[in-house]
Design a protein that fits this description.
Mean pLDDT: 95
Radius of gyration: 18 Å
Order of helices and strands: EHEHEEEEHEHEHEHEHEHEHEH
Shape: globular
Strand order of the largest sheet: 1-8-7-2-4
Number of helices: 10
Strand content: 15-25%
CATH architecture of the largest domain: 3-Layer(aba) Sandwich
Distance between the termini: 51 Å
Structural class: alpha/beta
Length: 262
């Protein structure tokens, strides 16, 4: 049996020792084409598009309720399962998938700490091309609103000294258009070396401290459409921050609602 764990990041050694456990679901978040060319043994494919709902204003919102229960249930995920999501370190899609599961109440969800291309190169885990057949389960969506922010909340927090709004995009994007008062911290700053999906919690904490971001602050992360912000969410949680949210609507939603942009 896979032990339940609050660890957001698991390593190759842990995954290898549990790979054949019946209560483990491994998700490949790289997309169907990449999955078809080889994936970790027993992994099931789930793309970024599968966990996003496009709103009328073009915002990429999180799936919840029945819309989330269908795709996750088809993968065999229920309360008894540990879920590990993997991808590439240059692509934050795996983090968006994992954050979606966490938001829907599946707390026993982790990111694999090493990018797939490095796993394949190093031979640390078995790589196959066969497609496993999961047993469909009854996934129950229990949205956790403490993980998410929306436009209304952003407006309320703009002048709140206890809250730091983090722009996870590039410096150029931040310069062109940003939520007023937000602090730039590019999501790529949190990627580790040598194929690591994310830096160590200690390194991240030191970096956030250097930016003047204290652990007692409430953190709200945004980007263009919520995916890079999901990775930034994991960075802050991995660094030990307790109160972290992702604004999945991000700058698209903020701008489409005709809010001020600096």
């Amino acid at each position: 049996m896979v032990e339940r764990s609050d660890e957001l990041i698991v390593d190759n050694i842990w995954l290898k020792s549990h790979l054949d456990d019946l209560d483990l679901v491994v998700i490949d978040g790289r997309g169907a084409v990449a999955y078809g060319s080889g994936h970790i043994k027993n992994a099931l494919p789930l793309s970024l598009d599968d966990v996003i709902s496009i709103s009328e204003n073009g915002t990429n919102l999180v799936l919840e309720g029945a819309a989330a229960e269908n795709p996750f249930g088809k993968l065999g995920i229920d309360e008894s399962k540990k879920v590990v999501v993997y991808g590439e370190n240059f692509d934050p899609s795996a983090a968006r998938i994992a954050w979606t599961l966490l938001y829907n109440g599946h707390n026993n969800t982790s990111l694999l700490g090493t990018a797939f291309s490095f796993i394949r190169r190093g031979g640390t885990l078995p790589i196959v091309r066969d497609l496993p057949k999961p047993v469909v389960t009854n996934f129950i969506s229990r949205p956790n609103d403490s993980l998410r922010a929306d436009e209304r909340m952003i407006k309320e927090k703009l002048n709140d000294d206890a809250t730091v709004i983090i722009d996870s995009r590039t410096p150029l994007e931040h310069t062109q258009a940003r939520i007023p008062g937000s602090l730039l911290h590019n999501w790529e700053n949190g990627i580790g070396d040598d194929g690591k999906m994310i830096k160590s919690g200690e390194d991240l904490l030191n970096e956030f401290n250097a930016f003047g971001i204290a652990k007692d602050k409430e953190i709200i992360c945004y980007c263009h459409s919520g995916t890079r912000a999901s990775h930034k969410y994991f960075q802050f949680k991995h660094a030990g921050f307790k109160n972290v949210r992702c604004y999945d609507g991000s700058i698209i939603d903020w701008a489409q609602r005709r809010n001020p942009i600096r």
